[in-house]
Design goal:
The protein contains five helices and five strands; from the N terminus they run E-H-E-H-H-E-H-E-H-E. It has about 140 residues and is an alpha/beta fold.
């Protein structure tokens, strides 16, 4: 039996802590884990994208996403944990939630972010929105 987990990553330290958590869980799990790494890029403003070819915009998002995923991929590969990599463009939280449902994920594992506000004291705004938008279990790693 295999369980699919979604691991949204933005290249930040909190996201890498979530990767480390997944590595620990995968090593001790009696069932196979199918890990999907996801980076979501914000669309470029129309002021920019209307003057740049769609191919250039696509390449920009792919390169930026690959850079954000590089450390997470390296950690998973060093731990011998297989994973699939995805880079999408869109509004971050809804894109994460939609992707998780479309790919039949059973769990979303995300890093927490301290923003210094009362609402964002422990969780970043993207993490808060994902929790609000999804009916899937979400593990938030501090």
């Amino acid at each position: 039996m295999t369980t699919r987990w979604l691991l949204p990553v933005d290249g930040s330290l909190p996201a890498l802590r979530a990767v480390d958590h997944v590595i620990g869980e995968a090593r001790s799990s009696p069932i196979g884990l199918d890990i999907l790494l996801l980076n979501v890029q914000h669309p470029l403003p129309s002021d920019i994208s209307r003057f740049v070819s769609p191919a250039v915009v696509h390449d920009y998002h792919r390169e930026t996403g690959d850079t954000a995923l590089a450390a997470a991929r390296a950690r998973l590969e060093a731990a011998g944990i297989g994973h699939a990599v995805h880079v999408l463009t869109g509004e971050v939280a809804p894109t994460i939630v939609d992707f998780a449902h479309e790919h039949d994920c059973g769990l979303i594992v995300m890093g927490a972010r301290g923003l210094g506000t009362v609402a964002g004291l422990l969780l970043g705004s993207v993490t808060q929105r994902v929790i609000h938008l999804t009916d899937l279990p979400v593990v938030v790693v501090k």
